[in-house]
Queue: 3 jobs
Job 1
Amino acid sequence: MNVGTNGILVDQHGNVLLIKRNDTRTYAPPGGAVDAGELPPEAAAREVREETGLIVLPVRLAAISYLPMAPHGFLGFTFRCLLRGGDITPSEESPVVGFFKPKPLPRRMSGFHRERVEKTLNHAEERPLFFQHSVSTFNKVARFVLRHVVYRWLDLKRKLNGQPKFQPPPTWQIHTHLLCKNEAGAFLWYRATEQSTWQLPGGPAAGLQAPWQTAVQLAHQQTNLHLTPHYLTDVYLGPEKTNLTLLFLTEDAPMATNGPLLNWFLPGNEPESCQPAQVQMVDKVSQTPQPTQFHTLPT
């Protein structure tokens, strides 16, 4: 899966920072791919500075979105940012940079960028939104033209100018786990057999489905319960440089009795047969439920 970020910055007049992309000639919030070993908020700050010259501080994850575009799908983190310094400076990737009125946004803007900007500007809660973009036939054709015509032409120009060839963004492995918490404060764990390790419901993303949708399906197979994600509590990078783990707290916990393959454990009282990294994740969630926190796992 490809992973990217956007930084949303609003000035004192309520105008939003946008760039005009050099590849599509459309407007978009500044942003780009997350590099291997980089946390999404770090990537957002880096991309905003590279594309606009402005130094920003991502202060809140406003939305996490998924674009089911072949071949890998695209997971996007959108942050509300504060201005810390710098001067507006266009770049090769962004020949036009400026603040634009949010109503109406520029007409030449892709549907998914428009949706991210509008939803982020209208969302004031600390709990981030999570949603999936729709993909039209136009989106698919535009993506094909970009990959097979525009990017090849840009690579040729770079070669003629003695510049290195464009390197595609890394492909990430995304795992999503659902944190189901009962009234006593215990979390739900499962295991495949009585000899297996206890784990949190969920697992790796697959195909072109949003990671949280895959987690819901896996959790139903693992627990026979219908768990509904409520909000994204934590994001972990690691242990590999292209691994991300998403933790979603679920809505009201369903009734489930303890058994050999399904059990409720209070944080700090998990048996040694629980997956160690997930035990640490649960402990952090119980201490800081909001806003979304970003962490790096030891390698």
Job 2
Amino acid sequence: MLYVVPGILGYYIAGGVLPPPALVLAGYLHISAMHLFSAIPDIGFDATAGMTTTAVVLGRRRSLLLCLAFWSGLAALVIRLSGLHPASLLVLVYPAVSLALLLREGLSIDRVYWYLPFVNTGLGGLVFLLATLRTAAW
């Protein structure tokens, strides 16, 4: 929840009300998936160091399945909350990442992981732009 709190506070400061629970849930699902996904490449190192992380306990495949579940939930929420806006379908890239890694053994999570910041920035920027244009008085 730590990563979602700044968004909750920003929403409250800007609007004087707390965000709807569905938005908080969407944030939680995304940060949970991102956090778990980033721990998967470290499973071997963490296990060797005696660390008990979620990724170590679940292993690679089950961690990817949980990321798939989290990101699928996020995608369903975003698409529903947007009223099926065509741009909202871009969120399907997140569950697609987990699914691709589950289906293609040769695909390296170490390489894929480094593309996610670009995806996050691109989609986050698009959401900001669309929200700004929607509320701008033209």
Job 3
Amino acid sequence: MNLSRTVCPAIALCLSAVAFQASAQTTQGSSAPLRTNDQIDSQYKMDKKACDAMKGNQKDVCQKQAEANRDKARADAKAGKEKAEANHDAAKTKSDADYKVGKEKCDAMSGNAKDACMADLKTRHNK
């Protein structure tokens, strides 16, 4: 009887951790929105609460696992944000490079053709 009181919360925590990791992994490399710190903290609080029914080393391990899951999720969220920023910076650098090449091509033209070329180039660059 006493075993079921400690085993059930442990199983619940393990299932929670598995679901938490699965959801964190699906955000990597997908267009799904990253988890916010509020969502991560909420999951952490639920995981910590599941540890309350445990005692001794089992409780300590449970709490450390909850902290580890939280830290991993935060790291995934930060990496995803930094990746998005890096992709944006790379796209801007490429666009600027294409603009410089296009400007040189437009400089070889004259009159209305040059004006039209520059207008088209600026429109494409500012997208």
